[in-house]
Amino acid sequence: VSPDEEGICSGKYFTEAGLVGLLEQAAASFSMAGMYEAVNEVYKVLIPIHEANRDAKKLSTIHGKLQEAFSKIVHQQENNSAQFGKDLVGFCILHSVHGRVTFVPTSLGLTLPSGSCYCLVGFYGERFGEDVLEVIKDSNPVDKCKLDPNKAYIQITYVEPYFDTYEMKDRITYFDKNYNLRRFMYCTPFTLDGRAHGELHEQFKRKTILTTSHAFPYIKTRINVIHKEEIILTPIEVAIEDMQKKTQELAFATHQDPADPKMLQMVLQGSVGTTVNQGPLEVAQVFLSEIPNDPKLFRHHNKLRLCFKDFTKR
Hints:
Strand content: 15-25%
Number of helices: 9
Keywords: Guanine-nucleotide releasing factor
Domain DOCKER: 1-314
Structural class: alpha+beta
Order of helices and strands: HHHEEHEEEHEEEHHHH
Number of strands: 8
GO molecular function: guanyl-nucleotide exchange factor activity
Protein name: DOCK7 protein
Distance between the termini: 63 Å
Family: Belongs to the DOCK family.
Oligomer: single chain
Helix content: 40-55%
């Protein structure tokens, strides 16, 4: 469009200087938010403009800020296990049991999920009255017939970001795993007779995967869930997941730089300690002592054997 046509683009931001000013503000805001990878993306747009204008002073400033941003990214990656772990971004799902509202609120920064849960309960307590509000803190399906019609119920469950296997190839860094997220998951253990927990051979798991209408982080702190799917894991599949998790923990503990003997000791005690009730030894005795009769379980049986092979290597 031409700037001369009836005041189109006549605002102060519809100039090169206006664009540069907005992008500089964006870079400063991303830096304050600790989103240093995004700072780099903004400066990728700014650098060609200053290069075209031969503005060495501006380029010098930008490259200084980029060096600072990348130094902080390196620092974050080095301190990933100590400070920037899973709890840095706290996600939880909140929905009314009447099915009208389902969304995932999030708290960015060093706010643990328990803190955001407390805020939500306080918020709805003020709206409905603390004596009327009741919180359902487990993630089991709710039987609406058993609820008091005179009370307001909300169900709160913690979720974590969910990625398909192919996505994990690209989501390597802390930033990749905690930004631009649309899918979340929570797990509910159950047995066929109604109890939540049982023996290894009867322990099932329900994985619920939620897809939101927009990606986090977003301008709004709550986003509607637009799709929900459930995956039921059989006891042997639950055992496979547990073994894979233990193997990953061992791999992480043995490859830490600098090495952390305390972490390694904790992981080893949890993996091979004789006091662990449902540790790898019992998993092997329950699922691998005999070849299963059902041909459908052969693949899982072999997969679990391979998990143990990997585990013993670690």
